[in-house]
Design brief:
By secondary structure, the protein is of the alpha/beta class. Helices cover 39% and strands 17% of the residues. A hairpin with a 3-residue loop joins strand 11 and strand 12. The longest helix has 16 residues. The relative contact order is 0.11.
Length: 351
C-alpha cells in the first residue's frame, strides 16, 4: 500500500470553487502557527470524524502539532479510523481538553457553522484567554461569519471532500497518504449515503478515484462501518421497521423510538444512525422523519426528503436545527407525541 501519491492527479481548478481569499488566509495560518485544535460537532458522524481526522493528519504532515477535541463520544464503528484513538473527548476529560485549548494558536471547526453545535464546549471556547485564530470549514446552509476564516461550500457532498479540495488547492496532493485518504473517503461515503445522494458530483468521484490510488480499500472501509453491527442493533432496527414505521398520508412517513425501547435493545451511540433512510425508501414517499428520545430531555430529530421538499427549512422552523435541502436534523424540546403532532401539521401544510 503506497504511503502517498499524486501521480496523474491535478487540481482540476478546485481552488476556483472556493473563496480564494479565505483559502489563502487558511494557508497562511497553517504556515505561520504551530499548535492547532480541530473540533467536530456534537455526536460526530462519519463526515465529522473523517474531515477532522484528515485535517489533523494533514496539519501534522506540514510539521505542526494538531489535536482533535470532540464534544462527546463518537460511534464505535468509527473507532478503527486512523487517529481516532487519540481523540480527546471533552465531556469525559474537560480538564485535559481545556488545557489543550488554552495552549492552541488556531481552532478549526469542521462540519458545522454555528458554535451552538458543540454545546457545552462552546462556553469553554468563549472563555479562552489566549484568543486563538478561528476557522470554519463546512458545507451546510446559512453559515455565520463568527470566525477569522470562513470556508463554506453548500453544494459540496461533504466537509471531507472540502478537506480534500483544500489539500489539493495548496499543492499538497503528495501529502495524502493512505491514512488521510481513508479518513476523507469515510466522510464522503457516509455523507453521500454511499454515493446515492444528489450532492454526489463528478468531482466527488474524481476525488474518490484519487483516494483509491492512494491505497485505500473501499470494501474494508465499508465493512468496518456498515457490516460491524452488534446483534442488538439489528434487532432494534427490526423492531423500528415492524412496529414504529408510520405513514402520514401517501407521501410522508415517520419512526419514533422512546427511551424504554432503546434500553430494551441495549442502545449504544450510533445504533440508530441511518434508520431515517428506511422511511424514504417507501414508494411514493418524499418526506420522512426519525425521532429518538434522549436522556438529556429532548427528542433527537432526523429528516430526509426527495426532490424539492426542503427539510432544512422544516428543521429550522420547527425543530431547532438545520442542514441541507434533502437532509437535516434538529432537536425538539417536548415529548415524542408532541413532535409527531408538529410533523403531521407540517405534512398537511406541505403535501
Amino acid at each position: 500500500m503506497p504511503l502517498s501519491c499524486l501521480g496523474k492527479w491535478e487540481l482540476w481548478n478546485r481552488k476556483d470553487h472556493m473563496e480564494r481569499t479565505e483559502l489563502d488566509k487558511l494557508f497562511s495560518l497553517i504556515s505561520e502557527y504551530q499548535k492547532f485544535v480541530v473540533i467536530p460537532h456534537i455526536n460526530p458522524d462519519g463526515d465529522a470524524m473523517g474531515s477532522t481526522l484528515a485535517m489533523k493528519q494533514y496539519i501534522e504532515v506540514k510539521g505542526k502539532t494538531a489535536t482533535v477535541i470532540a464534544p462527546n463520544k463518537f460511534p464505535m464503528f468509527y473507532s478503527w479510523m486512523p487517529g481516532a484513538k487519540d481523540v480527546v473527548l471533552f465531556d469525559e476529560d474537560k480538564k485535559r481538553a481545556s488545557s489543550i485549548l488554552d495552549d492552541a494558536e488556531v481552532l478549526l471547526f469542521l462540519d458545522f457553522n454555528d458554535l451552538s453545535r458543540v454545546e457545552d464546549l462552546q462556553k469553554t471556547i468563549a472563555e479562552l484567554h489566549s484568543a486563538p485564530k478561528t476557522v470554519i470549514i463546512d458545507h451546510h446552509r446559512d453559515p455565520k461569519r463568527i470566525t477569522d476564516v470562513l470556508i463554506s461550500e453548500v453544494g459540496k457532498s461533504s466537509t471531507s471532500e472540502m478537506v480534500y479540495d483544500i489539500i489539493m488547492a495548496n499543492g499538497d496532493g503528495d501529502t495524502i497518504n493512505s491514512n488521510i485518504a481513508a479518513c476523507i473517503y469515510t466522510g464522503i461515503l457516509t455523507d453521500t449515503g454511499s454515493f446515492r445522494f444528489n450532492s454526489t458530483t463528478s468531482s466527488t468521484h474524481r476525488a474518490v478515484a484519487h483516494l483509491i490510488d492512494c491505497g485505500i480499500e473501499p470494501d474494508l472501509i465499508y465493512e468496518q462501518i456498515f457490516d460491524n453491527n452488534n446483534l442488538s442493533r439489528l434487532r432494534l432496527t427490526g423492531h423500528a421497521l415492524v412496529n414504529r414505521l408510520v405513514m402520514v398520508g401517501e407521501r410522508a412517513s415517520y419512526m419514533a423510538l422512546n427511551l424504554e425501547e432503546l434500553e430494551r435493545f441495549d442502545y449504544r451511540k450510533g445504533d440508530t444512525e441511518g434508520l431515517v433512510n428506511y422511511g424514504l425508501g417507501i414508494k411514493g414517499v418524499v418526506l420522512t422523519l426519525f425521532m429518538r428520545e434522549s436522556r438529556e430531555g429532548y427528542v433527537k430529530i432526523s429528516l430526509r426528503s426527495k426532490g424539492n421538499v426542503d427539510v432544512n427549512s422544516i428543521a429550522r422552523n420547527h425543530f431547532n436545527g438545520g442542514g441541507h435541502k434533502n437532509a437535516a436534523g434538529g432537536k425538539f424540546y417536548g415529548s415524542i407525541e408532541e413532535s409527531i403532532a408538529v410533523f403531521q401539521n407540517v405534512v398537511n401544510e406541505l403535501l
